[in-house]
Design brief:
The chain has 540 residues and is of the alpha+beta class. It contains 21 helices and 23 strands. The longest helix has 20 residues. Bound molecules: glycyl-adenosine-5'-phosphate.
Length: 540
């Protein structure tokens, strides 16, 4: 297997080469944070969304104590009445704290500054080699030499480069002043970014050019547009940053138009848009992406039980699709991370090759009655407008039944993030194979399930292969290929992650058998040519 750092590059190259993922509008130089799925990628993502819909909406698992419950779907508009976003809190609160560089104008997310400096700053990467070892022992002549050479090129606005002697003297004063408490790397970084210590205090540098960063200011993440001819404040609309609100605002419509009873869930798959400051890690953080969200409505007193149920069910779902449990990590959020209305939240994380730390695939959140209360308040001026009758209360003659606002459990997953996780998990490398790279997709998710190959495009082999192909493709995505060497055809299918290839060869005419090649171990068995579809159905 290539080094972990190379793995991501290899995955990106394979995805481009084989048509899983392309940069959006590539012929014009692309556009940051937007991606297109090619022929294989769109089949893969479709299979993922279909599996999610089937396993959560059409055939959800049984609830706690083996209880049946109902799930229904909606497909809401992307642009909604802007009041939705006032009620949800996105209009005022959905912003990232950003810091602007005083030198080059680059923006950095305040809460990701140190991560950016540690992982995405060419000048820090170069400078760190001047410390011996990187625990922080400072070699002043080397530092000064770096400032005058590499530093000039990589970090022209860094205090250490602009005014090396003064900057180093501040650092020396600090080191000598507290010999028992050597400065941390973060502190050193701030010292070398500071020219006028007394006037400004310690500064934090821009990962790009080294100049001091300005104070944090909120940056709104919602994309704006206008509905109608006039582009005024009143016609301003937003592209939804999550699909969830479409579900909440249709809660009453769904209750009134169907026979669902609490507890039940409403699901939606759809596009969401966020003007992310730093889209990165391939499709992981994009500006346009798809969510697969469930809002599950239940009685307040049963909500913790449903929260635990959904958390466990969602973890099992990822495992059932081949995500190995050692790369999957449920992380319960600490009290300090929780929103004020939330009782609990678990992030289901996956260890992607681009990071040492697992990253969020899905959040399973206990949202209390916050969303329904807010929409009640903003649309009807009544927090309890969406309260429901407690059907379980025994009827007492002459007394009205009690009402309550349901609590909500929200499993919210990213279709693109999971697609990327599936791609990373499937990527396999085996030097002993003629073509070492192959994609070990779970058969349910594989974009192509089978291929049919006549060994050569003559001697009656295509005449046997074509009917087999036509029969299979009625039931499963299947490809037929009669060109190139058989090794190259297998290699193409391995890269596409096709679990089985059926090959018609010289022996087929003798005894009516074909070979079935297994993608994962390249082993081959012979079966009767009439059994190809049956073999596939049994194996998938
Ligand atoms: N309604 C709750 C909600 O939207 P979130 O944690 O902001 O919660 C849910 O998003 C999921 O959507 C995430 O776990 C992730 O899978 C996906 N997601 C969020 N932002 C994304 C982005 N910029 N690019 C790709 N996927 C994203």
């Amino acid at each position: 297997m290539p080094q972990q750092t190379d793995v991501m590059e290899k995955i990106v190259a394979l995805c481009r080469r084989r048509g899983f993922i392309f940069g959006s509008s590539e012929i014009y130089g692309g556009i940051g944070g937007f991606w297109d799925y090619g022929p294989l990628g769109c089949e893969l993502k479709r299979n993922i969304k279909d599996a999610w819909w089937y396993d959560n909406v059409r055939n959800p698992p049984l609830g706690p104590n083996g209880r049946e419950f109902q799930m229904v779907g909606v497909d809401c508009s992307i642009i909604m009445n802007p009041k939705v976003w006032e009620a949800s809190g996105h209009a005022t609160g959905f912003a990232d704290p950003m810091r602007k560089c005083s030198g080059c104008g680059h923006f950095v997310r305040a809460d990701q500054l140190w991560e950016a400096l540690a992982t995405a700053s060419p000048w820090v990467e170069s400078l760190i080699q001047q410390f011996t070892p990187i625990t922080g022992v400072i070699d002043t002549p080397r530092l000064l030499n770096w400032a005058k050479t590499k530093g000039k090129k990589l970090a022209p606005n860094l205090a250490l480069v602009r005014n090396p002697e003064v900057t180093v003297s501040w650092l020396a004063t600090r080191v000598n002043g507290q010999p028992d408490a050597p400065p941390t790397l973060q502190e050193i970084t701030c010292y070398i970014a500071t020219e006028q210590l007394h006037a400004t205090g310690l500064q934090e540098p821009c990962p790009k050019c080294g100049a001091p960063l300005g104070p944090p200011a909120p940056f709104k993440l919602m994309f704006e547009s206008h509905a109608g001819i006039e582009q005024t404040e009143d016609s301003k609309v937003y592209l939804r940053p999550e699909t969830a609100q479409g579900i909440f605002v249709n809660f009453k419509n769904v209750m009134d138009s169907t026979r669902v009873k609490i507890p039940f869930g409403i699901a939606q798959i759809g596009k969401a848009f966020r003007n992310e400051i730093t889209p990165r890690n391939y499709t992981f953080r994009s500006r346009e992406f798809e969510q697969m969200e469930i809002e599950f409505f239940c009685k307040p007193e049963e909500s913790m039980e449903w929260y635990e149920f959904w958390r466990d069910a969602r973890i099992k779902w990822y495992e059932s699709l081949g995500i190995k449990s050692d790369k999957l990590r449920p992380r319960q959020q600490g009290k300090e991370e929780l929103a004020h209305y939330s009782k609990a939240c678990t992030d289901i994380e996956y260890l992607f090759p681009f990071s040492d730390e697992p990253q969020e695939l899905e959040g399973v959140a206990h949202r209390g009655s916050f969303d329904l209360n807010q929409h009640g308040k903003f649309s009807r001026d009544d927090e309890n407008a969406f309260a429901v009758i407690d059907e379980d209360m025994p009827t007492v003659a002459g007394e009205k039944k009690e009402k309550y606002v349901p609590h909500v459990i929200e499993p919210s997953a990213g279709a693109d993030r999971f697609t990327l996780a599936v791609i990373c998990e499937a990527y396999s490398y085996d030097e002993s194979r003629a073509s070492p790279e192959f994609m070990k997709f779970h058969p349910r998710l594989a974009p192509i399930k089978a291929a049919v190959f006549p060994l050569v495009a003559k001697d009656g082999m295509p005449e046997i292969g074509e009917p087999i192909y036509r029969e299979i493709k009625k039931h499963f995505p299947c490809q037929y290929d009669a060109k190139q060497s058989i090794g190259k055809r297998y290699a193409r299918m391995d890269e596409a992650g096709t679990p089985f290839c059926f090959t018609i060869d010289g022996q087929t005419k003798v005894d009516g058998t074909v070979t079935v090649r297994n993608r994962d171990n390249a082993s081959q068995v012979r079966i009767d040519r009439s059994r190809c579809l049956e073999y596939l159905s049994d194996s998938l």
